[in-house]
Amino acid sequence: MRNDYYEQLKSRLLLRHSAKEVKDMIAYLQEAAKDSGLSEEDYLASLGPIEEVAAYFEGEEPKETKTPPIPNPDKAAASTGFETLESVLVSIPNGSLKLSCSENPGIVCTEGENAINIRFEETKLVVSAKPQAKLGLFNRKYPNIALEIVLPDKCVLETLEVHTVNANAHLHHMLANRAAFETVNGDFTIGESSFGTTRASAVNGDIRFANANLGRVKIDTVNGDLALKACAVTEGKIDTVNGKLSLDMETDATIKAETVCAKIVSDTGFVYSGVPGTKLKQPGSHPDHMLKISSVGGKIHFAR
C-alpha cells in the first residue's frame, strides 16, 4: 500500500511542484507517520483521500472533517460504526482525551476538529492526527485537541491502544483483552477498568490506575511516577528509571523487587522495608506467577 500511496501522491504533487520539493514532501509525510505513534500503513490509511493530503502541501484549506456525534438514545449505534467494534486505536498530540463507555456511544471533538482523522475500518476505530503544514513548508504544527470518545456500554474490546504526546488522557470503564498505553510529556489516568494484559509506557509523564484489574502487566516509566490504587495484577514486570512506584495491589504472584539507589518501603506488611540497593523477594500463592519490580532512582512503595 505504501508504495502505491506515495506514487499517487507524487503524481498529484508534481503538477505544481518540482521533483526535489515533492521528495521533501514525501520525506515529511514519512516523518509525520513516525511521530503519530501509528504504523506507517495505519497512518496513511487514516489521512483520508490523497486529494485532501495534497491540499495541505499546496497551501489549500482542507475540507472540514466531521466527527460522528453522540447519537440520541433511539438511534442505532450501527449508524456510527460502534455496533461491531472490536478494536480502538487512538493517537493524538497536544490536548486532552477522554475515553469511557455509555449507552449513547459517539465521538465529540470540541477543539482541533480539523486536525484529526476518524475512521472505522470494519471492526476497528482509528483516530489519529493529520499532518499540519505551514507556509514555511514542512514545519509540523499541531493545534490543541480536545477529544471525547464514548464506546457502547460494557463493550469488550479485543485491543485498546492509546498513544499521546503532550496530551493528558482519562479512561474509565474500559474492558479489553489487550490494552496498551504510551505517553510522552503527558499523564494517563485509568479507572474502573479490566484488561487481560496491560502494557504502559511513560516518558516525562505519570500513569495512574485505580480500581482496575490489569492482568499480566508490562509497565515502564522514565522520569514519571506510577501509582496503582486498589488494583489486581496477575504477573509481569514493572520498571522505572527516576520515577516513584506506589503500589496498592493484590496479586498471587511471587514478587521480586530491587533498586539501584532508592529505597523499598512498605506500610502493609506486604513486603519488608529496605534500604537503597536492596533486593527483596516475597513468595506468592501461585507457583507459576512472577512479578518483577525494579527501579534505578525512584522509591518503591508498597501501600494499601
From TrEMBL:
Domain of life: Bacteria
Record protein name field: Uncharacterized protein
Lineage start: Bacteria, Bacillati, Bacillota, Erysipelotrichia, Erysipelotrichales
